[in-house]
Amino acid sequence: MLPLELMDAVCENLAPADLARLSYTCSSAHQAAQRQLYRHVSISSSRRNMSVVLTLARRRQIAHYVRTFSIELDSHSTPFRPFYLQLSCALSGMTELTSLHLSADPTASWILEGIAFPRMVHFACPFPVDSYVSNFLKRTPALLELEVDPTSCRNEQPAPVLASSSVPLLQQFVGSSRAAEAIIPSRPVQSVQLTAGDLTEEVATCLSDSTAGIAILSARTSSAPAALLQLLSQKMQCLVHVRLLATYTYPEAHYIVSGCSICLISFSYQAFQTFYEHIAGALNAFPYLQTFELSGMHWGSEERKDSSDRQRVWQSQPLKSESNSTSESLDVDPYSDLFYAY
């Protein structure tokens, strides 16, 4: 009989169908094949492998083999509470789990009750930050990446404040502004993507309480972009990459209503010029900023050639055609990805 290390090495290079065949040869091969077959589990309604949840719930020795687990339930499948009970039981047996992705009913956060994953580094779920999620995060001390509360409602109550000992190593956050306010302060978060809610001045001030300094920020905002950027340059001086989707209504612009949409039809060149200058002035206050995107447009910049700190000079006027360009414009390729809009 081969040592376990060699059996595992052999199984790592086998396809699932071959592992299934190998598991029927002998008891030692059966265990080695199972360890590999259940190491990375991905379940979805379309794959018709939902029964794997029942297997993992009933056979905890197999659940112990799982390192990454993902389950995706589409809108056409609505499992009943007994299925979620089995899912909770299966999760409780995955004591060595390092990554968990749950795409299920947002109201089913109760399945996390009493479960602990001391080795988990990645967690994604559609649940709001309620008492179940808050208590669950206390039991994930190694967590580095968190995705939670992706579509928070405006009328929801503020999320419960996490204990100071929860997720002490967290580096990356994806979720609503509501959840971000409860989770990011006092933690070493460096990357923030707000998928719901509004990046207001109050939220930005709260996010600036990250102990590591936020370097990557993506969010939607209804605030005036220039004023918000000025605040960010004061509160988040470590920013390197920023992406903002602005829903601010510019007083200088003229709009028409088309159905349920409001369309911009007029914005004078002078207004554009002033707008660009204000944005550029705010961007120049960031010491480390490398890329900036506003509502799908990448802002142009170049490094100061006479500066030792490699600070960038940001585009301060609308792009012009080559025939109208002047020596005052930045010497940047207009077809580079800096100006690519989508």
Automatic annotation (TrEMBL):
Biased amino acid composition, Polar residues: 313-329
Domain F-box intervals: 1-41
Top-rank taxon, per record: Eukaryota
InterPro entries xrefs: F-box_dom
Residue span of region Disordered: 306-333
Protein name: F-box domain-containing protein
Upper lineage: Eukaryota, Fungi, Dikarya, Basidiomycota, Agaricomycotina
